Amino acid sequence: MTDRPDLAAMIVPLGRALMAAEQPVLAAHGLTMWAYVVLLHLDEGPARGQGVLAQEIGADKTRIIAVLDDLQERGLIERHPDPADRRARLLALTPEGRRLRDAAQAEIQMQEDRLLGKLPAADRRGFLNALTALAGLPRDEIVGD
């Protein structure tokens, strides 16, 4: 037996608290959590269809349709035919979507900076480096699939 809690036992409550802190910021920007996740993900480049996007962000592909429809109606994302596969649609951020995402993210990260400020500078850097490394691992390396 070890003298520390399991990682999930520490991370899940922290993650839930962080998400709760983000909710008012997202609401002020007219975004749901899933809409924000889509805008963040599309900054990495166009996504090949809603099924691929849903899989990449861990969303149910049938539920993400309403989120994508709303974002498109608001001019925050665009859907274009994929030249490599006319059945598929490429999803991409619009300049307005990028602006809104950046504004929401800046406010969220200001809140996070206040939280991170509770740690000594060296611990803060180590925590962020470790979290970045672990978050970058492929899912199957964590789960063991």
Written overview of the protein:
The protein has a single domain (7-139), classed as Orthogonal Bundle (Arc Repressor Mutant, subunit A), CATH 1.10.10. The chain is globular and about 55 Å long. With 145 residues, it is mostly helical. The longest helix has 22 residues, at 7-28. Strand 2 (77-82) and strand 3 form a beta hairpin. Helix 1 (7-28) packs across helix 5 (95-116). The chain has 7 helices and 3 strands; from the N terminus they run ααβααββααα. The chain has helices at 7-28, 33-42, 49-57, 64-73, 95-116, 121-135, 139-143, and strands spanning 47-48, 77-82, 85-93. A 3-stranded antiparallel beta sheet has the order 1-3-2.
Number of strands: 3
Q: What overall geometry do the principal axes of the alpha carbons give?
A: globular
Superfamily at the CATH H level? Answer: Winged helix-like DNA-binding domain superfamily/Winged helix DNA-binding domain
Beta-strand portion reads 5-15%
Q: End-to-end span in angstroms?
A: 26 Å
Q: What is the CATH C-level name?
A: Mainly Alpha
Estimate percent helicity.
55-70%
Largest sheet: 3 strands, antiparallel
CATH architecture: Orthogonal Bundle
Q: How much is the radius of gyration in Å?
A: 18 Å
GO biological process, one term: response to stress
Keywords: DNA-binding
Organism: Nocardia aurantiaca
GO molecular function: DNA binding; DNA-binding transcription factor activity
Topology record:
Layout: H1 7-28, H2 33-42, E1 47-48, H3 49-57, H4 64-73, E2 77-82, E3 85-93, H5 95-116, H6 121-135, H7 139-143
Antiparallel strand pairs: 1-3, 2-3
Helix pairs in contact: 1-5
